[in-house]
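[audit] Reproducing an earlier prediction to check determinism. Same input, same settings, fresh worker. If the tokens differ from the archived copy the diff job will pick it up downstream; this log only records the rerun itself.
[audit] input (337 residues):
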Amino acid sequence: MTGIPEGITPIALDAMGGDHGPSVTVPAALKAVGEGGVAVALVGDEKSINAELEKYDTPAKQLVQVAPSEGVVEEGESPARAFRAKPNASIFVAAGAVKMGKAAGFVSMGSTGASIAAATVVYGTLNGIDRGALGGPVVGYAPNTVIIDLGTNVDTRPGLLVDFAALGNVMSKLIYKNENPRIALLSVGSEEGKGNALVKETSELLSATDLNFIGNVEPNDLPEGKAEVVLCDGFVGNVILKLTEGLGDSIVNHVKTVLGDSKESKELSKEIFERMNILEAFGGGPLLGVKGLAIVGHGASGVNAVANAIGTAKFVISTGLIEAQQTELDRIRAEVS
């Protein structure tokens, strides 16, 4: 982006990503800019974006630019094939803007696989890591508990979970201000020795580090915040994520059915939703383990969630998380080698 005032963080937003495209991403960008501290490059179909921008008369438009791209990676489309067939698709152009120094990070509500592929291929991974991982708080009752991996690696190995422990440790310290995060493995029992081969082998490796490893926690411990970093493979993590989302929606719908459309019903529904699922508050989470910032959000996100994701990008950049990850990885690897 050009002509950005000092102290303003430039963010590239995949304007075509998500279920709603520019009808949500454009007003979200304007909202985020209006809240201060960021400028936004809307990456996507220039005609569609400009048509949406024309609907708004706000000073925030001065810090919003359009970055043309060609094509969109659809949900379910193979990220690898899309990268070869659509190198100028919005998500890849957004990542490229960061790589070229035109933006400090990118945000996308589009295909999760494509967002991960874009960050991995365009940025590159940290030394020694094959693939990044999505991590962050999921359960609103434990807003400072980072669960990692939330779906990036459905199959993993003990050494990679140790790497994720290092990434989660530094994330917890810098973003959630936990001085000495408790790190745990998600398992079927809290007792030592409980779990599958992955859990048992990872436990042995983590015990050899100076991380504050407390052993195993069970799924019912997650709302209690018994650990600040909880490790699991991406299959289990994604199940937790989607169960939490679905359970929150179901409880809210039940409350509305029982209490009707009263003021009390609306207030209680809002509180339950926020308690069950805090993704709306953050809008998305950073992809850990890559050499640049990528905030990956939910396709169904509305204006507030997308605007919050842009704000999350600004905040994460200010913490120095991207630079600190490699240092922590190298330190932990030296202890287990």
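[audit] rerun output stored. Observation attached for the diff report: The two ends are 43 Å apart (CA to CA).
[audit] end
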